[in-house]
Amino acid sequence: SALNAISSYNHSPDDGVLQFPRAAPYLLQSPASCEHTLPLFGPPKTVRMVQTSTVVTASVATVAAAVVGYAVFFDYRRRSQADFRRTLRRNERRQARAEKEEAEESTRRQRDAIKARVDEAKEEGFPAGVEEREAYFNEQVMSGEMLSSDRTDWPPFSQPQRCSDTDASTATKSVESALAFYKGLKVYPAPGDLIKIYDSTVPKPILDILAEMIAYDSTLDIRTRSPGINLGDIPNVGLD
């Protein structure tokens, strides 16, 4: 405080002249001489910003130099050392084999999940009456269309699924959409003719899953309808 500053003044033991504390020379300078004087409490913000920018630039340059140096060293070893080249090829083959095994395991898990959903649908059963079958057909086809329209960038069925929530949600929707179309096939009089309609209206990734379901269900007859079956009994709702 001002009182503390005043109380710090003292007289010189040599000449008895009143002395200011150590910071006093800044206070005694004239206004003109203070124009370019640094403040008492450190450098101005502009100086600190320049210093920070310099440090960042130097750090980036150091990292870049290290990366370039490593790349040069790596290329030198690759060209000059046969053992190093063999190690690289061995690591590449190991990585490719691991990726292939991961893809195969992911596909196997997807197929197991599809088979489980088909088994659940068969255990639940399907309606037998004409009106019940018609209502069931309309409901399932509309459900399948709504699920398939939620996403237009479905990943291929053979592509390994990652573990993120978004990919898991996409995979679930694709299976549920295919399952709904599968249930529609189960109650349609001529499944073979309905599949032709599916081919032109259902996204291909979902068709691939549906094909897995059809292949697994040996009781589903997808041959072309025989004469005498009236397809007008169950309309093609939502598939025009």
From TrEMBL:
InterPro entries in the cross-refs: MAS20, Tom20_dom_sf
GO molecular function: mitochondrion targeting sequence binding; protein transmembrane transporter activity
Sequence segments annotated as region (Disordered): 90-112
Membrane topology of the entry: Single-pass membrane protein
Localization: Mitochondrion outer membrane
Coiled-coil segments on the chain, per record: none
Record keywords, A-Z: Membrane, Mitochondrion, Mitochondrion outer membrane, Protein transport, Receptor, Transmembrane, Transmembrane helix, Transport
Residue stretches spanning the membrane: 55-76
Signal peptide: none
Family according to the record: Belongs to the Tom20 family.
Name of the protein in its database record: Mitochondrial import receptor subunit tom20
Source species: Tolypocladium paradoxum
Lineage: Eukaryota, Fungi, Dikarya, Ascomycota, Pezizomycotina
